[in-house]
Design brief:
The protein is α/β, with parallel strands linked by helices and about 500 residues long. The protein has 17 helices and twelve strands. The protein folds into two domains: about 250 residues, 3-Layer(aba) Sandwich (Aspartate Aminotransferase, domain 2), CATH 3.40.640; about 130 residues, Aspartate Aminotransferase, domain 1 (Alpha-Beta Complex). The protein is about 35% helix and about 10% strand. It has a seven-stranded mixed sheet with strand order 1-7-6-5-4-2-3, sandwiched between helices. The protein has a three-stranded antiparallel sheet with strand order 10-12-11, covered by helices on one side. Helix 3 runs antiparallel to helix 12 and helix 5 packs parallel to helix 12. It is globular, with a radius of gyration of 25 Å. The structure holds pyridoxal-5'-phosphate.
């Protein structure tokens, strides 16, 4: 069996047979807990709701329990383990100081319904995060209720709808580029609009003539991410914004890729009216994994009245109160959003400061351009404008020559100690490999990642069969990802509990 020579991570991945479950480890009488002796009389509650016997939970010693979960953690790949170049997802290393702040008991143990007079500390954190976010995006006010990027998109579109509704004509269409992130057309449809696709030009940017052709008085607005999903900065962004504003449409910025422009250029200055940011990608909470996120929506002055509320707002006497915007679209989340993700983001912003945030943008672009330069020797780069924080390469040539596809290349990378990149997205590139090395990786790691990708291309020529079965050195090999999405098995029953 071939052994990849270039594994960047020195941490061994645990391979081999299936992990025993806690049930397999269970032995009668073992326990992972200890409680002090009762110092009050024992009472038996004789209630009809009570079961006859305790549930048949596994009985495991603390030592075995900890070993079990530690072993499982070692079988996983995460941002703390190595480079995770999953384009469009910004899976970067997150500084531990952000966890420290979010775990402070004064933040962590707060009840979400506690009144403002008892929660001034966390409200001040939210107000400060809003101030910095607005400064970075060029917006006037923000609401932190939306719990994810896609939720921010829907919120922004509902604000768009409220704006047009108040003018007496809700309109029906929202324009999105053909390379847009999948959540964009989904959010547009969910908000009750028709998604009108505008094609990219030969440079991978919005085709201005095609845009002019689809925009009219029935256009509520346009959704755009810039840098776009090809990793390119829309050079005609001011013209794009002007075309939409000429029909009184609103320009929506999908700010999921904000790390590429932090402190360098602001969506507000490009002409955008509504911006969502993915705090969980850009500001120190890992994306994915199903954990809580935060997709705050920020707007220009004339749209503040529609923001979801209530919003923490400094009152005249210095206290912070909850305030409902005048024509609010209402709540989009229970309580006030995922507050601890906001605390982590604020910690990140303050720890890095203005110059540090600017370096985030510079480093994210530098790393992507370096990686693009290194892998461009082997993989075609269909759009050649200088990339920003990510780029899209193509395995089309490799496929023609060897039968090895983008998916095979991606599945081989974990054998080298790297997470797989995004594949087959955006749809405008055949055999797309979308790579985002992120700002947190060193030049050595970027070089090791490039070396792995080049070596995989070599292996494709010498031994394509080997790559069809990759990865070979991970706890599990090829998974049926379509099956996992379409027929997920989300429940497991212990034999004697059915
Ligand atoms: C460009 C873009 N827009 C929107 C989203 C959606 O964000 P979320 O996954 O938090 O809903 C993403 C996801 O990373 C994205 O890359």
């Amino acid at each position: 069996m071939r052994d990849p020579g270039a594994r960047a991570s020195s941490t061994p991945l645990v391979g081999g047979s299936a992990e025993p479950t806690l049930r397999d480890l269970s032995a009668p009488g073992r326990q992972a807990w200890s409680l002090p002796d009762l110092d009050v009389p024992r009472r038996n509650l004789d209630l009809p709701e009570m079961a006859d016997a305790p549930p048949a939970l596994p009985e495991v010693a603390e030592r075995d329990l900890v070993a079990h979960f530690t072993r499982l953690a070692h079988r996983n790949f995460g941002v703390d383990l190595g480079a995770y170049p999953l384009g469009s997802c910004t899976m970067k290393y997150n500084p531990k100081v952000c966890d420290w702040a979010a775990e402070l008991p004064g933040f962590r143990d707060l009840h979400p319904s506690a009144p403002a007079q008892l929660t001034q500390g966390i409200l001040e954190a939210v107000v400060e995060a809003e101030r910095i976010l607005c400064e970075l995006t060029g917006m006037s006010r923000a609401s932190f209720q939306p719990p994810a990027g896609a939720a921010g998109e829907l919120t922004g579109l509902l604000i768009m709808r409220a704006y047009h509704q108040e003018k007496g004509h809700p309109r029906h269409k929202v324009v999105i580029p053909d390379a847009s992130h999948g959540t964009n057309p989904a959010s547009v449809t969910l908000a009750g609009y028709e998604a009108v696709s505008v094609p990219s030009n030969a440079k991978g940017m919005v085709d201005i003539d095609a845009l002019r052709a689809v925009v009219d008085e029935d256009t509520a607005g346009l959704m755009l991410t810039n840098p776009n999903t090809l990793g390119l900065f829309e050079e005609d962004i001011e013209v794009i914004a002007q075309i939409i504003h000429e029909v009184d449409g609103l320009v929506y910025y999908d700010g999921a890729n904000l790390n590429a422009i932090l402190g360098v250029v602001r969506p507000g200055d490009m002409g955008f009216d509504i911006v969502h940011s993915n705090l969980h990608k850009t500001f120190a909470t890992p994306h994915g994994g199903g954990g809580p996120g935060s997709g705050p929506v920020a707007v220009v002055e004339r749209l503040i009245q529609y923001l979801p509320g209530p919003i923490p707002t400094p009152a005249g006497d210095g206290a912070i109160v909850w305030e409902q915007p005048a024509a609010s679209i209402g709540r989009v989340h229970g309580n006030h959003g995922n507050m601890l993700v906001v605390v982590r983001a604020l910690t990140y912003m303050l720890a890095l400061g203005g110059p540090g945030l600017e370096r985030v943008a510079q480093r994210s672009v530098l790393n992507a351009r370096y990686l693009e330069h290194l892998v461009g020797k082997e993989y075609a780069i269909p759009y050649t404008a200088p990339c920003m924080h990510e780029f899209v390469a193509s395995a089309e040539n490799l496929k023609k020559e060897t039968g090895i596809r983008a998916m095979d290349v991606a599945k081989a990378l974990p054998d080298y100690g790297f997470h797989a990149p995004t594949v087959y997205f955006p749809l405008v590139v055949d055999e797309a490999l979308m790579l985002e090395p992120t700002e947190t990786e060193s030049p050595e790691t970027v070089e090791a990642l490039a070396k792995a990708l080049l070596e995989i291309a070599d292996v494709a020529r010498q031994d394509p069969e080997y790559l069809h079965d990759a990865p070979h050195h991970t706890p599990v090999s090829r998974l049926d990802d379509a099956g996992a999405a379409r027929s997920p098995v989300l429940t497991w029953f212990m034999e004697d509990s059915q």
